[in-house]
Amino acid sequence: MARRKKIYEGKAKILYEGPEPGTIVQYFKDDATAFNAQKKDVIEGKGVLNNRLSEFFMTGLNTIGVPTHFIKRLNMREQLVRACEIVPLEVIVRNIAAGSMAKRLGLEEGMPLPRPIVEYCYKDDKLGDPLVTEEHIAAFGWASQQDMDDILSLSLRVNDYLSGLMYGVGIKLVDFKIEIGRVYDGDYQRLILADEISPDSMRLWDMETGQKLDKDVFRRDLGSLTDAYTEVAQRLGVMPKQATHAVKPKLIN
Q: Coiled-coil regions in this chain (predicted)?
């Protein structure tokens, strides 16, 4: 498929005009960033793995009735998605204390939380995506109260699905980040899951060893990021067990 006009380029993806009105082609790059892009690298194969894993998660969520922007995977690095208006929030669901929450609240990393905690950050790289409350969201009109109720419900359903999926392959879902989009059918608006779901946007720990299988491997210089993502893909059955990223991953269609 011939690419159309580039719409946007972010840290990990490029968006192009899709082949039909209301569609977008989402291209997954090999770029890895951390600490608001203060740390950068190019890691061969990361985009291929994230494309396939995001397809796997989004397809599963669509199957259980969680609406997403995902339409289909086009090739090893691209997928076709529905165009939507992105709500300017990052929605973070936490099951275990880690990362910025552990630092902010003086919690021991790895402490199970009494219940899943949902946090919101305002999407603005220049500001470092600051943590905001529902009061901020309402006051600045980023989302209505009905939107927030729907976002909370959707986020917890995603958490239930991903937690069970990961538990089944011996992985703890520590936390994850999602983005929400608005789509319109005439005068009717609904919210859908947008962006991606991949190890780039999750914290994943091996249940027995505590080994990190997410972007913290890159953040903390803990080894090979593609090895970690390949391990996740293999456990989930997305990639054959015998495959290694060294020979460029051959993914299951």
A: none
pLDDT at 247: 45
Residue 216, in any domain of the structure: no
Specify the number of domains making up the chain: 2
- Band (pLDDT 50/70/90 cuts) for residue 250 is low
Domain identity same for 77 and 115: no
- Who contacts 66 (Cβ-Cβ below 8 Å, separation ≥6)? 154, 157, 158, 161, 193
* Whether this model's pTM surpasses 0.85: yes
- pLDDT tens track for 23-44: 999 999 998 887 766 778 898 9
d(CA 61, CA 4): 28
